[in-house]
Amino acid sequence: MTDPRQPAAGTTRGATSVGPQKKRKGLWLALALAAAVIALLLLLSQCGGDDDPQPGAAGASSSPSSSSSSASASPSSSASSSPSATSSAGGGAAGGAAAGQPSSLVAADGTAVLDPAAPADPAPVLGQVAGQQVTATAVQVLSVPADEGFWVGSSDAQRVWVQLAGAAGESPYQVRQGDRVDFTGTVTAHDGQFPATVGVDDAEGAAQLATQAQHVEADRSTVQLSS
Predict the structure, then answer these.
(1) Exposure pattern of 109-136 as b/e (b: 16+ CB <10 Å)?
(2) Quick check: helix, strand or coil at residue 224?
(3) Which of 161, 175, 196, 216 could connect to 185 by a Cys-Cys bridge, CB 3.0–4.6 Å?
């Protein structure tokens, strides 16, 4: 009989084989460590990827903002300048006819003595521009009641007396009723006797001329038929 206490063949009593188990444990430990390293690397990679777009995203968001600000500023400045220009143009129109405009008589400071756009009695304006030079452009000759003077304007209510001065040239222009003439002259004050002195009677507007107390004295060499 075999003694049951005897060890089986191929084994040694009191010894345990641990070689294969240690190898398996080492392999699993290495695999776990490698997996942990890979997971850590992936995590770091994701964190780095999330950080990189942020500056770009910030730059992208700031660019539209600044672009929008610039775009809104331009219309604003254009809108503010346009009314200024319009206002300036309106102011010029309100001041009266511009020098060079047909049927106008304009003083040196820009005041319209005869304004075709707003016909009115010129007496008040004549007093304001006394002593100033005036320029007439294509004003109509209403009547020529004296050899040395004539009325210009748009009607009997809006007219100014022009008194000629200076020597006549070799071929002086003869002013006729209905002509349109250009000339330069000076607004000159006169007294109540002036109408009679220059030969203007009551039928030709002596009372009106005396009331206006101002006339335009023009050198005859500047008076010419308007083209």
Answers:
(1) eebbbbbbeeeeebeebbeebeeeebbb
(2) strand
(3) 216
For 58, list phi and psi in degrees, rounded to 5: -65, -40
d(CA 144, CA 204): 9
Tens digit of each residue's pLDDT, the chain (227 residues): 445 455 454 444 444 344 555 556 667 777 878 888 888 787 777 765 555 444 444 444 444 444 333 333 333 333 333 333 333 333 333 345 666 788 899 999 999 999 888 788 899 999 999 999 999 999 999 999 998 999 999 999 999 999 999 877 666 789 999 999 999 999 999 999 999 999 999 999 999 999 999 999 999 999 999 98
Tokens representing 160?
């100014």
- 125 within 8 A of 111, measured Cβ to Cβ: yes
> Closest Cα partner for 132 from 223, 224, 217, 211?
217
Name the residue with tokens 């009551």: 202
Q: For residue 210, what are the contacts with CB-CB under 8 A and spacing of at least 6? A: 192, 194, 195
- Tally of residues, the chain: 227
Residue with tokens 């005041």: 111
